[in-house]
Amino acid sequence: ELYRGLSLAVDTYPVRRVRDQMIRTGRAIYRYEDRHRRWPKSLGELVPKYLSEPPIDPWGRELVYLVKPRRRGYVLGCYGANGRPGGEGEARDWYIEDGRFVRHPSGTMP
Predict the structure, then answer these.
(1) CA distance linking residue 77 with residue 60, whole number of Å
(2) Measured distance CA(27)–CA(24) in Å, rounded
(3) Which CB contacts under 8 angstroms, 24+ apart, belong to 34-37?
(4) How far apart are CA 72 and CA 48, in angstroms?
(5) C-alpha to C-alpha distance for 43 and 96, rounded to whole angstroms
(6) I need a labelling partner for 75 at 20 to 30 A (CA). Which of 5, 9, 28, 40 fits?
(7) Is the bond into 48 cis (omega within 30 degrees of 0)?
(8) Cα Rg for the chain, rounded, in angstroms?
(9) How far apart are CA 79 and CA 60, in angstroms?
(10) 92: closest CA among 43, 100, 84, 106?
């Protein structure tokens, strides 16, 4: 039972990390918007004041970010372990749109 629990923890670790990283980044985006009254043009604008370093997913890639048309919100994404849109398990895509996790964003991601 102990080994199965440890195995499950190891298997889910990247997923927990990507969720945590996206939540931290989403909060930084909102703090930026609150102070500047606009969404950041890129995630680089969050460093170093809102984030200590650029947001990197557990697989070593930068999170993807898009300001929606007419600056009416944003989409933050991670393409999972394979680094490509679509996929299951660790390759699952993760998105936050306007502060909420969504399965499929309304905007087109880069």
Answers:
(1) 14
(2) 5
(3) none
(4) 25
(5) 14
(6) 9
(7) yes
(8) 15
(9) 11
(10) 84
Q: How far is CA 47 from CA 29, 43, 54, 93, 101, in A?
A: 11, 8, 6, 24, 23
Residue 91 to residue 81: CA distance in whole angstroms: 4
Burial class (CB in 10 A: 0-12, 13-18, 19+), 28: buried
Asked if residue 87 lies in contact with residue 100, where contact means CB atoms within 8 angstroms, the answer is: no
The whole-model pTM stands at 0.83
Q: What is the per-residue pLDDT across 36-83, written as a single tens digit (0 to 9) for each?
A: 999 999 999 999 999 999 999 999 999 999 999 888 899 999 999 999
Instruction: Name which of 38, 95, 46, 100 is nearest 67 in CA terms.
Output: 38
Break the chain down into helix, strand, coil percent, rounded to 5: 40, 15, 45
**For tokens 């039972």, what's the residue?**
1
